[in-house]
Amino acid sequence: xxxxxxxxxxxxxxxxxxxxxxxxxxxxxxxxxxxxxxxxxxxxxxxxxxxxxxxxxxxxxxxxxxxxxxxxxxxxxxxxxxxxxxxxxxxxxxxxxxxxxxxxxxxxxxxxxxxxxxxxxxxxxxxxxxxxxxxxxxxxxxxxxxxxxxxxxxxxxxxxxxxxxxxxxxxxxxxxxxxxxxxxxxxxxxxxxxxxxxxxxxxxxxxxxxxxxxxxxxxxxxxxxxxxxxxxxxxxxxxxxxxxxxxxxxxxxxxxxxxxxxxxxxxxxxxxxxxxxxxxxxxxxxxxxxxxxxxxxxxxxxxxxxxxxxxxxxxxxxxxxxxxxxxxxxxx
Amino acid sequence: xxxxxxxxxxxxxxxxxxxxxxxxxxxxxxxxxxxxxxxxxxxxxxxxxxxxxxxxxxxxxxxxxxxxxxxxxxxxxxxxxxxxxxxxxxxxxxxxxxxxxxxxxxxxxxxxxxxxxxxxxxxxxxxxxxxxxxxxxxxxxxxxxxxxxxxxxxxxxxxxxxxxxxxxxxxxxxxxxxxxxxxxxxxxxxxxxxxxxxxxxxxxxxxxxxxxxxxxxxxxxxxxxxxxxxxxxxxxxxxxxxxxxxxxxxxxxxxxxxxxxxxxxxxxxxxxxxxxxxxxxxxxxxxxxxxxxxxxxxxxxxxxxxxxxxxxxxxxxxxxxxxxxxxxxxxxxxxxxxxxxxxxxxxxxxxxxxxxxxxxxxxxxxxxxxxxxxxxxxxxxxxxxxxxxxxxxxxxxxxxxxxxxxxxxxxxxxxxxxxxxxxxxxxxxxxxxxxxxxxxxxxxxxxxxxxxxxxxxxxxxxxxxxxxxxxxxxxxxxxxxxxxxxxxxxxxxxxxxxxxxxxxxxxxxxxxxxxxxxxxxxxxxxxxxxxxxxxxxxxxxxxxxxxxxxxxxxxxxxxxxxxxxxxxxxxxxxxxxxxxxxxxxxxxxxxxxxxxxxxxxxxxxxxxxxxxxxxxxxxxxxxxxxxxxxxxxxxxxxxxxxxxxxxxxxxxxxxxxxxxxxxxxxx
Lengths: 332, 667
Fold this sequence. Notes:
The structure holds two protein chains of two kinds.
Chain A: H1 3-11, E1 18-22, H2 26-37, H3 45-48, E2 49-53, H4 54-57, H5 60-66, E3 76-81, H6 94-105, E4 111-118, H7 127-135, E5 137-140, H8 146-159, E6 163-164, H9 166-175, H10 180-193, E7 199-200, H11 202-208, H12 213-225, H13 229-241, H14 246-264, H15 270-277, H16 281-291, H17 296-315, H18 320-330
Parallel strand pairs in A: 1-4, 1-5, 2-3, 3-4, 6-7
Helix pairs in contact in A: 1-2, 9-11, 12-13, 12-14, 13-18, 14-16, 14-17, 15-16, 17-18
Chain B: H1 6-9, H2 22-33, E1 40-44, H3 51-62, E2 77-81, H4 88-98, E3 108-113, H5 120-131, E4 137-143, H6 151-154, E5 158-161, H7 167-181, E6 184-185, H8 187-197, H9 201-214, E7 218-219, H10 221-228, H11 233-244, H12 248-260, H13 265-281, H14 295-304, H15 307-325, H16 330-344, H17 354-369, E8 371-372, H18 380-394, H19 400-407, H20 411-423, H21 432-445, H22 463-468, H23 473-481, E9 492-494, H24 496-504, H25 508-523, H26 527-533, E10 536-541, E11 545-550, H27 553-561, H28 563-575, E12 581-586, H29 587-602, H30 623-626, H31 630-636, H32 641-652
Parallel strand pairs in B: 1-4, 1-5, 2-3, 3-4, 6-7, 9-12, 11-12
Antiparallel strand pairs in B: 10-11
Helix pairs in contact in B: 2-3, 4-5, 7-8, 8-9, 8-10, 9-10, 11-12, 12-16, 13-14, 13-15, 15-16, 17-18, 17-21, 18-23, 19-21, 21-27, 24-29
């Protein structure tokens, strides 16, 4: 089920007693939080809504709360973060397990137990996991892919009557790695920027959305391969100025070259390659795009030279900046 | 009023006054105007880019405090320096006090500077507050090192990244300030200051302050250079120019002047490298050059020096730097460095990149040995090419020291050379050529680790190198061709292609024959040669050629130099009706080659390389004997031939060294 169905359930007051929320899109999970909170009247929230971190408090206070009747109201909401007892990580005692099962089988009417498992990988062989999976309403909130993110972004901006230029949108997705949650986090700034012009332009995005260092390594690798030596040197300097450790930069650069080589050597959809290489499919897509412009031999040489650079950094007392300059100037 | 530093006087008080961060200031202003400010901000960026100023301005404007009160402290704007208040307790007290309503203004604003200095516990304590802050509270964190901030903090704040200011922005701002201050200045001086500031306005103004203090009347270029320490590069450039002009004496004098002035040897080397780096970058990224004032000089220097030369100089300097670390005699090393640098510039006409220079001598060395005429016929073309090759090789020899050193390694080669000398009428040109070439061979032998590259089978592999020497070639060729053949040396191939060629026509019975005979054959050799040959195994054989695999590449290389051994081997093989043509390979290479061959066969590829199509590596080069020592003559302008003969005798004993005739130093 989706957030939409949850909303309907809430509107129709047809609420089950147990929800299990999974998925790795933080922004949507937050939204689910807010949605569930809306079940309880704000005035009652103090009494009838509580959030527990299972890893910190254990099961007992959660069950106590869940089994108490709502205090002046129709519902009592118990939100549980980190339900690690559903994973291979931790275990309930036999008594706890029994008590939990009992509580699930005979819930206090109106009470809701909501487990936020999010990214945790559930151990489906466990008895307790099995029974919860069978009894709970499952709300899965997987990460939005690039297309969905774009769509959500447009929807968001349309509602506020703000436009975004095409290159600004591309840059925004690039800098946030097309992650919906990250895009959402950047939007308040961009909206404030565009509050007069009602248009988000490229200057705004480049000036306001910080680049992750992985994205910058991507840029750096790009500049290196495109032989834009001056730009590459400038970027490297800026990164160092920003306090990046040369060794880390080198590792990122190496990783990017490696990714290019890996992507060049693998077939399949962006998704499947991404999951095989354990990188975001968007990065695979970008790598494929850039691979069209580079000679593979060059990528390979670059990879080896950067590797050499790392060895030198670790074994000699050479200024890393100097090493990079030297590499950059001689790389072709 | 007491003097106030420029950067304090001119600290921006409104968003309009902030330069270089227009997008950020505009966004913050808009947010305030629309009353849509967030509850937690993170300002990151290098120092001097306006983070703290922006935080202060933002705090005032959110609370509607006018510009005039900028310097007064306000009870609801609380500034904390996390560098000195980094514990959990400080953050807890913030958390507690955050729960009280602001006193005068609409918002209570905490500015936490250098936020990355907070301890982990403090971060966690802050986290809870950032997550659900009281409605009337805002946090502004400022940091220079955003990568030290936990991700949990980053995701809960609106993050603004302040950019390094461009030199132009800094310069414009300085010009503005100096006009306001009624301070005279030279425009170029501001360039120097802006570069030295590396993108930070505060640094720029501090340096400017110092320059003013140094010469209050006017900000001059000279003063700016003195304050930023850019003057010393003059001497370094002089030194480098002298080195490049091969004016060793002058360079040494400059060096001693620099050292006398009290400069540390390591410092000198570091500066030297920094200067060469500047040279390297001067065309590419002029604004990254450290020695801004000398851009013209650097450019001039750059036109004089090739990229490869520059690389070589850097390598030499780097070597010396390493050596220096293990020595107390720093001055001597620097003097040696000077000499080395001047000498290494010999290559100017024909720069050899580092990768090449390690490889080519090996290749040449291997070839050369084999350039001896076979007993039957002398292929003049081959000798010619070998002669050209020999010349190429010499490009890498620069010092007599190396000649002497390498000589020591190859007594057999010398012997062989001398035998030739007995039989041949060498032209009356300088006989040192002979030793020089030998030395080259040995130089090749010095690199046992490097595998022999496939190009080896093509003697004139590098036309570029050969042509560089065209003017010298004719002399060489003629002298070389005048050599009569004396001794039967086998034809030797190295490289992968010959292996494939032999494999494609391999005959099992031939190999069995060779393998059976081999142990006995080896026994017929002198003990030292036996030692070598025992590490060798026949691996495959066709009717024409035999593949021998060596356990150790180093021994293979040495054997290639060892004419005696090869000649004896050829004899022995002929006596046993085995093919005289040899393909030498190290065992590892052989394994690879065979695997490659098998793989190719499996994939259905037909291998049609025939040995005849490949140029053998070995033809005997008798020009050992002959060729004039052009290089030595050019480079060292010293005739060191007799010394070398003497030296060889000293090293190997009189009975081993048989020096026969030659015209100018008959023996």
